[in-house]
Amino acid sequence: MRHLVIGLALVSASAAARDLPVPPDKGWKHAATGVVLTAQLAGMHRTALTDATDSESDVTAQFETDDGSVFATVFLFRPAVADVGVWFDRARTALEAGDRFRDAAPATVDPLSFATGGAPATSSLRQVYAMAGGPYRSTGLAVMPVGDWIITLRMSAKARTAAELDAQMLQTIAAMHWPTPAGLAVTPAAPVKACATPLVFGKAKQVKGDGGDLLSSLLMGSLTSKVRAESKEATAPHPTWCRNGEGRVEYAAYRSSLDMSGYTLALFDSGRAVSVFPSLMAQIEKTGVYSVTLEDVDGTSYAYPSFSSLPSPEQVWKLLERGERIGTAKEGKITLSPKAL
Asked: Residues of CATH 3.40.1000 domain(s) within the chain?
């Protein structure tokens, strides 16, 4: 993750990570999930532990062997979309687009599904890559659920083959202290495929949104975050997801089998996502207006101006770049911009 320094200012109120006050020789337990990251992990020592939020909602831990030949980064975040396939797709796009790993060759055509920490299903995905040149011989990626949280592991080695790195990745994952039962997730993970019938985008125009729409979008996002934060079990039906077109490092559009009327724009591989769907009043009055709402990993929802019809992902991204937020909601508290109404 992560392109976060570039993109975080666009989508979040926080722009800099803070060091967590944990001594280098002590373990750290994540309060929300129960995951424990020890000071030593499968022959590597922890070199950094940071949080991009003030609530341990976007934690990064770095590990390295004493000789610097192998290093790993563990990302723990609460995504707006609790789906392993979506965030594996995002992380894989970021990895394969990186300058150091642009020529990496995957060891398998498709990522491998596997179980973690005693989970009752193969709810995780991983993939390793061989490197033909450069300072690294192999690199790898794993994405694992812990309830509606996600753990992403990135690992690279200067001398190990892809098969050797894959074995060490599994040792590293096993060495983490997982809650019981791990993740609560029982849905098998599957790679995201391209949508069979992609959306077609016209020339959507930005419009002034309805005040009721704005409030309902913010309240719904805030309520969903609150319910998920308090829930101990995954009770909602789990949708299948497809990717609408090709993804970019900055974003990709995904569609859920539970609602195909719009799309979700997943940003970078950071867990943040934008909902682009018909507004509440548009559904009642058949106006065709689409609302745009971003959900951050800390549960904050941001409302943006609406569009007269379904906007393209490029249009939504430009809207985020311009920073045109018109409303914010967190834990039931709503703040509206003077431009909102």
From this structure: 4-175
Residue partners of 123: CB distance under 8 A and separation at least 6: 84, 113, 115, 116, 144, 145, 183, 185, 186, 187, 188, 189
Paired tokens of 37: 């990251």
| CA angle at 155 for the pair 149 and 158, rounded to the nearest 5° | 175
Q: How many residues does the chain have?
A: 341
Q: Which amino acid is at 254?
A: Y
Is residue 272 within 8 A of residue 324, CB to CB? The reply is no
Class of domain 4-175: alpha beta
pLDDT, tens only, 220-248: 654 444 444 444 444 556 789 999 999 99
Which residues are CB-contacts of 99 (< 8 A; sequence separation ≥ 6)? none
pLDDT tens digits, 67-79: 999 999 999 999 9
Find out whether 204 and 311 touch, Cβ atoms under 8 Å.
Answer: yes
Low-confidence ranges of the chain (pLDDT < 50): 1-8, 13-14, 183, 185, 222-234
pLDDT tens for each residue of 134-162? 889 999 999 999 988 999 999 999 999 99
Distance (Å, rounded) from C-alpha 35 to C-alpha 180? 10
